[in-house]
Design a protein that fits this description.
Keywords: Membrane, Transmembrane, Transmembrane helix. By secondary structure, this protein is mainly α. The protein has twelve helices and no strands.
Length: 335
Amino acid sequence: MGARQDRFDEWVGAGLLEASTAEALRRYEEEHGRIPGPPSQTQPPPETVAPADDGQQEGRPRALALVGEILGYFGAVLAITAISFLVSQSWSSIPIPGRVVLVSVLTAVVCVAGVAAGRSPQDAAQRLASALLLATVVCAGWLAWVSVDAAGVRDEAAALWTFSVATAVAITIYVFRRKALAQLAMLAGAIGVVAMTLETLDLTDRSVPGLALTCLGVAWVALGATRALAPAPPALIAGGLVAVFGANNMGFDDPTRGLALAAGVVLAVSMLALAVLRRDLITLMIPGGIGLLTMVPQLIEHLVGGAMATWAAVLVTGVVLILVAVRMLRAPRSD
């Protein structure tokens, strides 16, 4: 069992398995005789005799891990609060090199703490590591902003550099740790890069920003659906919401309002259809439903006008969503 257990620990450390899942797999393999179980109780070696309070011994590391996770979050809140106060009181009086050193040290401390927490197979430690590495992305962006500010770069160029550095750090973290928070940090950074690129190129008029966000969201959903981004549910939900938000923003431009809203409704219906047809994409129900509820009334109001028609559209949308839900609940469940 030692060799197989080492592989399980390796997979847990790489973020491919949760610790609880690895333990369940070990028990399953032992029960079916694929790997040897613990030594027989008839002739136990003196050093392997289990203590009388084995249940307590097993529960103690989990309790300690949970306490450690809570302390880690509490310490992070205290540190962030203290840093915010100190920075607000003395930031203007700190020389530029001192600012760079201060933020660099903070970024390094948070990053090292996140990497150290990620080496533990405990679920609590993995959650804490994800939070600390997300904070690392934020600190890296702050460091980039301080650096370009020291170099005299301002406005859109500084913001573009800040988001680019934060996105690059998020991508690096995600390559080694395919977790939901790292994935969401990548998406947030990508949104910032797209927005600042459009600002730099002065392409903020009409429906260009909304179209760009819609394309980014659709691409993110496609990557999640093909499992290029894992875990898939956060990619489907977050990407779908970005696409819906972009389509809704296109609807604010009067000349193309009707066309943009119609395209947004088609996009929302497509998400709902995929959620019904493919159970592995069921989380698309969330952005699809939100998109339908936000854009159908606007489209009806734009085409027909009047409160009665708008609320009739809301009623029809609600009935459609109920029918879709009933259809999904009646579908046979897979194993």
